[in-house]
Each structure stands twice: as structure tokens, then as C-alpha cells.
Amino acid sequence: MMDAKIAILGAGNMGQAILAGAIRSGVDPQKITATTQDEAAKKLLTTKYQVGIGESNAAAITGADLVIVAVKPYQVKEVLSEISAALNPETVVLSVAVGLDLDSLAADLPPGQPVIRAMPNTPAMVGQGVTALSPGASITGPQLELAKGVLAGSGAVIVVPEKYQPAVGAISGSGPAYVAYFVDALIEAGVHQGLPRDVATALAVQTVEGSAAMLRETGDHPAIAREKVTSPGGTTAAALAEFDNSGVRAAIIRAVAAAIARTKEIQAGG
């Protein structure tokens, strides 16, 4: 993988997160070429990451083994059309655009071009993300392993059938916003009870981070972890009862369903 040549088209926040992860995974920065229209970003890419800057998207992909398309969804069609004629038949095209399925991506590429649909999330910016990959029919085992290896530096990588991508996006793609929403509410509750805001923030953020790490390390079902904190008739039990009375669990389930419904609307052009 260290010998692989990577092109990242659209080095915005997510593109830079993937780039940083690729370098952590062992990809030589000298073998990475990125594109962006932002002059400040270009300077950052060359000074902080020491990667090459493509004069155009088509120029950036010359000789690339993996092309990561990280532009906004509405820009993908234009970018794919721009690079299509310059692609090597063995080059893997990986898109992180929300709402664009494999068929849509393939329509703007040469027939049989290896394509992967990916759904990363924003914690990739600190190497703690999770990316779900759905490979197209033309992807070989080594090509999939290349993509997984490059993205591993951004966090966990899983492979799922494409039919699950809307649910993936609604859970892990949008999930950081849900967690931030909960943490914000927890902080406000602490402030309401008299805690200084910085103290409430430190308590809430570390509690969420530590709880997630505990679930991952122990492998406990969340219900088991919950019961370990909840004494019969105790304070935690009173708080959880209030969550249930307020329909928090049902609201989360409905929220995920709403996100999936919106994904399908976007895919349909809505």
C-alpha cells in the first residue's frame, strides 16, 4: 500500500481528514496528489501534509491507483465527467458523496470502471471515524483491501452491501450530530443545576468518550452497561424513567427513519 498512488479530488474538511488518515496508514505523502480551489487550503496541503497539488482533476489522477472523490454531491457528476477519459481501467474510484449510489457513479465513468461507494463520518478528522464501504461489481479483492488500508488511518472501516448505505448514513454519518445534540443538552442541564459551563462541558464530553470506549473494550451490550450503573430505586433509574416517559428512545428511532427517508428523497433528485 505504501507504493500506491492516491488522488484526492476535493481536499476540504473530509478530504483532508481522509488524506491525514492515509498518511497515518503508511501512504507516502509524495505519492498523494490533491485538488482544491481554495488557495489557503493549497498552502496547507503543501506545508502541513507535503502532498502534491493537481493543476486539474484530470491531471491529478495520472497514474493513480485510487481516486477519492470528496467534492460536494452536486459537483460529483462534473468531476467524474472531467476525469473519465484520463482514468486507467484498473484505477479504483471511491466516492464519499452522500446520496449517490453505485449506478449513478458508474453512469459517468467508463464501462466496468472499479467503483466503491463510501460513507465516512466527521470523527475521521481526529482519526476516530468509521467508514462503510460498498464495492461495485468490478472491484477485486486487492482493490478493496487497498481502499480499506488507505481509510484505516481515519478510523474503523466496515464493508456493507449497498442496500444498507441509507441506514449507515442515518446512524454513523449523521450520528456525530446526534451525539453533539445530546452532549449539548447534558451540558445545559449541568449549568442549570449550578455547574460552571467549563466543568459541565468537561464532565459531559469525557463521560460520552469514556462510555463509548468502555462499550468497545468490554463488548458489553449497551443494556448491560446501563444496568451496571443503575441501582434499583436510585438516581440513575429516576433519570432513565424520565427519558422513557418523554419518549426519547422512540424519538431516536423516528429520527433515524426520517434521515433515511430524506436520503431516499435526495437520491430521487428531491
How are helices and strands ordered from N to C? EHEHEHEHEHEEHEHHHHHH
For the record, give the distance between the C-alpha atoms at the N and C termini, rounded to a whole number: 39 Å
Question: Quick one: CATH superfamily of the largest domain?
Answer: NAD(P)-binding Rossmann-like Domain
What is the domain tally?
A: 2
Largest sheet: spatial strand order: 3-2-1-4-5-6-7-8
Provide the β-strand percentage band.
5-15%
Major sheet size, sense and barrel closure: 8 strands, mixed
Q: What name does CATH use for the topology of the largest domain?
A: Rossmann fold
H/I helix tally = 12
Shape: elongated
- Which structural class do the helices and strands define? alpha/beta
The percent of residues in helical segments reads: 40-55%
- Catalogue the unreliable spans: none
Q: Name the average pLDDT.
A: 95
**Topology, number of strands:** 8
CATH architecture descriptor name of the largest domain: 3-Layer(aba) Sandwich
What is the CATH class of the largest domain?
Answer: Alpha Beta
